[in-house]
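Figure 2 data, in text form.
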Amino acid sequence: MSTGKQNRHKEHELEASGPDTAAMRRLTLVRHAKADTPLSGQQDWDRVLDRRGQHDAPEMARRLRSRKLKPDLILSSPAVRALSTASIMARELKVPADRIAQDERLYLADPKRILEVVHELGGDAKHVMVFAHNPGITDCANRLSAGDHIDTLPTCGVFTACFALDDWSQLAWESGIEAEFDYPRNRV
């Protein structure tokens, strides 16, 4: 994965190495893939992935797989577009369906709510992947990063970082190191 367009809100660079990896955990935030424009009378919740979204989700999962970034646990908004993205990526990453948890709080969640869900549901997973929506998912990535910030997490964009934690309840703002950002139109 490579770093995409960034907005330098902070002067220091992403740390190249961090604390002892024995206590390291990884959090990956994913914005749902591109969805169809809602049909007349259709609820936002029910929007499905469009053709590009159906193409981008497995592509982004392949990029993660090539870097051996397979989550132990997936937390997803139950909105159709988010859950579809999570299901496609889980299948590509060979994550069992019973390791996908839906939580309504992730639907249009702000950063504080996303953090709350990870605190509560992260459990003993070493790598948690969260599927949610903008602007909350971008804002959450920026608040978690100890380094550079991103302008926006595009559809099916991925932000991943490591955290020195014994437990997910310790996850805190500005503590993410070795952060990376990738998105479908970023040609690697």
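Caption note: Confidence is low (pLDDT under 50) at residues 1-22.
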